[in-house]
UniProtKB/TrEMBL annotation:
A single MF term (Gene Ontology): DNA binding
Limits of the Helix-turn-helix domain: 2-50
Family matches, as InterPro entries: HTH_17 (IPR041657), SinI_DNA-bd (IPR010093)
Coiled coil: none
Signal sequence, renumbered to the chain: none
Protein known as: Helix-turn-helix domain-containing protein
Pfam families named among the record's database cross-references: HTH_17
Native species: Metabacillus indicus (Bacillus indicus)
Highest classification ranks of the organism: Bacteria, Bacillati, Bacillota, Bacilli, Bacillales
């Protein structure tokens, strides 16, 4: 499925001018049909899946309690 720059910006929650800059820098693959750029939506699925995995890992890491330090001496 191909998306326009506007649709891609909405899909990725990014500004349109940033998407256009990424296309011009060849960081996003796109096809120019003479009037507009068309971007294949499937190229973002792997990236979005990896970002979700990283978010889950970070949440898991942040939710772990900090272990007690064995070097702390009780001075009572």
């Amino acid at each position: 499925m191909y998306l326009t720059i506007k649709e891609t910006a909405e899909h990725l929650s990014m500004p349109e001018n940033y998407i256009e800059a990424l296309i011009l820098q060849k960081k996003i693959r796109a096809v120019h049909d003479g009037e507009q750029y068309l971007i294949n939506k499937d190229q973002f699925t792997t990236h979005l899946e990896q970002m979700e995995t990283y978010k889950e890992q970070l949440d898991e890491w942040l939710s772990k309690p900090i272990p007690e330090d064995i070097d702390i001496k009780d001075e009572d």
